[in-house]
Amino acid sequence: MKRQVIVVGAGPSGSSAAFYCAKRGLDVLLVDKEPWPRDKVCGDGWLPSLKPFFQDMGIYEEMKSLNTVSGANEFILASPNEQVVTFSLGSHGDGDGMFIIQRRIGDDVVRRAAVRGGAEFLDNFDVTDLVIHRGKVSGIRGYLRNQPIEMEADAVIIANGSHSMLARRLGIFNEDPSLSMFAARGYFTNLPPELKPGTVLQFYLPEGIPNYHKARKSMSFGWISAHDKPGCGTLGLVIPIETIEALEMSLEEVFNWFVNHSKNGQRFFKGAKLADELKGWRLLGCTEVQKNYAQGALLIGDACSQAECAHFYGIPAGMMSGKIAAAVLDDIFATGDDSEAAFARFHTIVSEKLNSQYKFYQQFRQMVHFDIENVNKMNEFAVKNFKGVPEYSTVMYRFVTEVLGKTMPHPPAAAERLSQ
Ligand SMILES: Cc1cc2nc3c(=O)[nH]c(=O)nc-3n(C[C@H](O)[C@H](O)[C@H](O)COP(=O)(O)OP(=O)(O)OC[C@H]3O[C@@H](n4cnc5c(N)ncnc54)[C@H](O)[C@@H]3O)c2cc1C
Fold first, then answer.
1. Cα–Cα distance between 167 and 127 in angstroms, integer?
2. C-alpha to C-alpha distance for 135 and 49, rounded to whole angstroms
């Protein structure tokens, strides 16, 4: 049976693509290899820039009600020299901050919205290969509930996440080792009362860790978002592969060292309990939009390494690309021009939309995350120059422009562009 569009992978990117395709009246099948709902290792942070997508999908109120962190407005930054400064995260227009929702729950809300919008969904559908006819992707093959299956499609949207074999099949291999991270997530209970509900603690590798001088880079090591339920929180750890190699420890060993031997580890994690195992993943980021198309196929989200390289937020870029993919395919079907050049327009549009964002995060990564002295100095700058609880983005912007003498777009302006 031939479908107009098949979307492979029902994470936020694929479900967004399926929703917007269905909204445009396209016949769309969304498939995922897992039985749903499924888990995904993530920091569970749904940025405010996702609001327009949730509104389009009719799930904004539902996502808001699932948010485990109401009024996330306090941000504690622990620098490599273990100085701790508390910032405000500011408000995002209507006062809603970032939602923290477990991916197992949030992703299913987004997927169900795609189905309500008109997409057909099949889980336990493992796509193992693309059907390619005369250089054009013309379908998929794989296993549906363990039975071999092959399906034709006018276009395939590849949204099957990080390290996509389907992307590699098309010769698309967007893996820059300098942007590769080891990453893990853990859910905690028994966090100290100091981590009040709504607080986000971001901590850098403490300078005292053995072999720190070899690792050289300070890259933010982790953050924990304290939930409304006192003592509970989501931990995300992210560390460059080259740093972990220099430290000669596993990510878990680094975290354990932090908890047991550093001042801030003792302060914020002493007595805390891991509610389930620490789940790890290799995470890839990017500094500009990479090749994301072939004749007959478009790639979105982690399948083409779209997470930005400073904080590794990837949901917004994936959902936005899903919306753009639907518009491009609609146009291809309307004009009947299904040449490679017609699919390449997707790359142009996504680049126009996202490259300035990526540039901002790349600057942030180089000037702040990867410069030990700068993180220490920024915290000192905040302590000296601001009374009360300063807003983080203002401090960062003023530090970069006034102290480092560099230019950078003001972060809220950059974030607004993404949601337009
Ligand atoms: C530790 C960590 C913390 C992070 N924190 C954040 C954060 O707080 N906020 C944020 O925005 N981003 C964060 N990210 C990045 C974010 O998780 C990803 O960018 C995001 O999940 C990308 O969504 P996606 O839909 O492209 O891929 P995914 O969410 O990975 O979905 C891909 C889907 O494809 C399916 N699939 C895979 N292979 C096949 C196949 N062969 N056939 C059929 N289906 C298949 C999978 O089952 C899955 O459901 C974090 C990542 C990590 C690792």
1. 12
2. 37
> Which ligand 1 atom is at minimum distance from the Cα of 184?
1
Phi, psi of 142 (to 5 degrees): 175, -145
**Domains of the chain, first to last:** 2-66+103-174+287-364 (3.50.50.60), 177-284 (3.30.9.100), 371-419 (no CATH)
Following DSSP, what letter does each residue of 66-107 receive, concatenated?
A: H-SSTT--EEEEE-TT--EEEEE----SSS---EE--HHHHH
Q: Is the minimum distance from the CB of 322 to ligand 1 under 6 angstroms? A: no
Determine if ligand 1 sits within 6 Å of the CB of residue 9.
yes
37 within ligand 1 shell (Cβ under 6 A): no
pTM of the model: 0.93
Question: Which ligand 1 atom is the nearest neighbour of the CA of 165?
Answer: 41
- Which residue has a Cα nearest atom 35 of ligand 1? 9
CB 34 less than 6 A from any atom of ligand 1: yes
Rounded to the nearest 10°, the torsion over CA 301, 221, 98, 226 is 140
123 lines ligand 1 (CB under 6 A): no
C-alpha span between 191 and 199 (Å, rounded)? 11
Coil/strand/helix, residue 184: strand
Q: Is the CB of 183 under 6 A from ligand 1?
A: yes
Q: Is the CB of 106 under 6 A from ligand 1?
A: no
Tens digit of each residue's pLDDT, the chain (420 residues)? 799 999 999 999 999 999 999 999 999 999 999 999 999 999 999 988 899 999 999 999 999 999 998 765 688 989 888 988 888 776 544 556 789 999 999 999 999 999 999 999 999 999 999 999 999 999 999 999 999 999 999 999 999 999 999 999 999 987 787 888 899 999 999 999 999 888 889 898 888 899 888 876 666 789 999 999 999 999 999 888 888 888 999 999 999 999 999 999 999 999 999 998 999 888 888 999 999 999 999 999 999 999 988 888 999 999 999 999 999 999 999 999 999 999 999 999 999 999 988 888 888 787 777 777 788 888 888 888 887 777 777 888 888 888 888 887 665 554 444 444
13 CA from centroid of ligand 1 (Å)? 8
Q: How far is the CA of 367 from the centre of ligand 1 (A)?
A: 27
Decide: 123 and 143 in contact? Cβ < 8 Å. Answer: no
293: phi then psi, degrees, rounded to nearest 5? -155, 160
Distance 336 CA to ligand 1 centre (A): 32
